[in-house]
Design a protein that fits this description.
By secondary structure, the protein is mainly α. The protein has a domain of 144 residues. It is 75% helix and 2% strand. It has a two-stranded antiparallel ribbon with strand order 1-2. A hairpin with a 5-residue loop joins strand 1 and strand 2. The mean pLDDT is 86.
Length: 214
């Protein structure tokens, strides 16, 4: 990276792995706790019957656990570039803060200058709205698989969590587009909680079917 010495690059390496690891494990722990509360607090016996008769008997817990790993990998892959963005932007003399973080790629013109998205006015709003759309596409594969598996065991809970996710994503896009960087924060948090809760339901069902339930 231009402007970053080899020594500085080496120092950044632990953080490159720490950030995505925390972004995977910490939300996963929260989601697991919410999922356990749902399992224990709303129709416990009915859920157990489905888990025992359908998932456990057919050894489908392997599929459930595989989908959880897939979902976690999706979040890791989306988190890892975060540790590279600051150095990449700052190496070109621009601060990596505010709306500049909407840039998914950084380009260099023939003179060596950094090319970034327009941040102001209608063009800036359009760019941020599209960044929110791409953020959704980048993160949704794991959730889509989890919705199917979790919905088989916890259909009502998955419907409610999906509705919460939808509200969060709409708030994310509108807040980001209209208010700029930071305006998407609440929507991001709402959508993330719904996402990790659905993932947690898949994990809870898979672990219990495998005989590892709490």
């Amino acid at each position: 990276m231009d402007g970053v010495t080899l020594k500085e690059e080496t120092k950044m390496k632990p953080a490159l792995f720490a950030v995505p690891a925390l972004f995977v494990l910490f939300p996963a722990a929260i989601g697991f706790g919410i999922a356990e509360a749902i399992h224990r607090g709303t129709g416990f016996s009915g859920y157990c019957n489905v888990i025992d008769s359908d998932i456990k008997d057919r050894s489908l817990y392997w599929l459930y656990l595989a989908v959880v790993l897939f979902a976690w990998t999706t979040r890791w892959l989306n988190s890892f570039p975060m540790g590279l963005k600051n150095a990449a932007v700052e190496s070109h003399g621009k601060m990596a803060k505010g709306n500049v973080r909407a840039n998914m790629y950084l380009y260099q013109n023939l003179e060596g200058g950094l090319v970034v998205l327009e941040e102001d006015g209608a063009a800036g709003q359009y760019n941020r709205a599209n960044r929110s759309l791409h953020h959704f596409i980048e993160n949704v594969p794991g959730l889509a698989l989890c919705l199917l598996l979790a919905g088989f065991v916890y259909p009502a809970a998955v419907f409610i969590l999906t509705a919460i996710f939808v509200l969060g994503r709409i708030a994310h896009q509108t807040g980001y587009a209209i208010k700029g960087y930071g305006g998407h924060g609440l929507g991001f948090a709402i959508a993330l909680i719904a996402t990790v809760s659905v993932e947690g339901l898949v994990l809870v069902a898979g672990l219990r079917a495998a005989g590892c339930g709490l």
